[in-house]
Amino acid sequence: MIKKRIAVGLDVGGTTLKCGLIEESGKLLLLRKRKTDIHKGRETILTDIEELIRSVLTEKRLTEKEVAGIGLGTPGYVVNGVIHGSPNMPGWHGTPIVKIMKSAFKTPFFASNDVTLAALAEYVVGQKRKVSNMIFYAIGTGIGGGLIIDGQVYEGSFGMAGELGHVIVEPGGRLCGCGIQGCVEAYSSTVGMVGIAKELLTGSKGKNSRIYRAVKGDLSKVTPKIIYDMAKEGDKVGLQINETVCRYLSMAMGGMINIINPDLVVLGGGVMQAGDIIMKKIKHYLPRYTLPDLLSHCRLDYAKLGEHAGVIGCGALVFQKLGANIRSKA
Ligand SMILES: [Zn+2]
Questions:
Q1: N vs C: which end of the chain shows fewer Cβ within 10 Å?
Q2: ipTM above 0.90, yes or no
Q3: 112-129: per-residue pLDDT in tens?
Q4: Distances in whole angstroms, Cα of residue 293 to Cα of each of 129, 254, 289, 296
């Protein structure tokens, strides 16, 4: 057990910095936010991060030595303490985040990928039942993910594990943002499904679709919400898109279940706000792509933590790295 029971979590997003104080149980005690000024460059973001952490500590009358440590989640990867990738945050790539933060604060510091940490948060506090192995999907603009193996967040050799969106489901298929053709992200992310919608609506039957009417023929206005609202009203194009989205997701997911043998697959991200229309279809398709024994031992559930998952995961990372017992609940 760790004596210092509070960790600082700092979630770096493309638009918002979130800083929280998190208990070992995963309880979020305090949350403060500020805008991420990406355009002002790396130094500004680093200064903002440091100020935000200090203001949160001051607000709770804590010194940096009184907390267990600081955990930071960021887009991209953290390889040997340096941020790689993060294409949506120009200038952030190459930042030696661990070195910088360790010189700024006299407390242990850890950093990892933001979606990996959201997975850890869902594991630590989002799920009440005993779970040892879990796969987390974050389905939004892209498809990210995280893996919990034997109760520990799995980061891979270089902190890059969990790229669940770039599993090929259609060789030679739609071009993905990563440059490879046929990734599940190219079909089942918001970008993917809107692309599919535009193609279907341009066809001969497109004009009869409720989606077409909802955007008054302006296909640049098609959103995932409109697609799913219309699908729920029985629109054929909307339902067809949902079939495609869920079939490919199930294909990717089935492969992962066969490899990992998880107790649980958690589905989160903005797309999952559509709810049961997706969950039911995935349950329909999964048996086609998953070995029956593995599927019968695997539960499917919605993510529970929403937008705070990232910052809670940052705190959970500190306790995990320091060896706190956050393994499966009894
Ligand atoms: Zn890809």
A1: C
A2: yes
A3: 999 999 999 999 988 877
A4: 20, 12, 12, 5
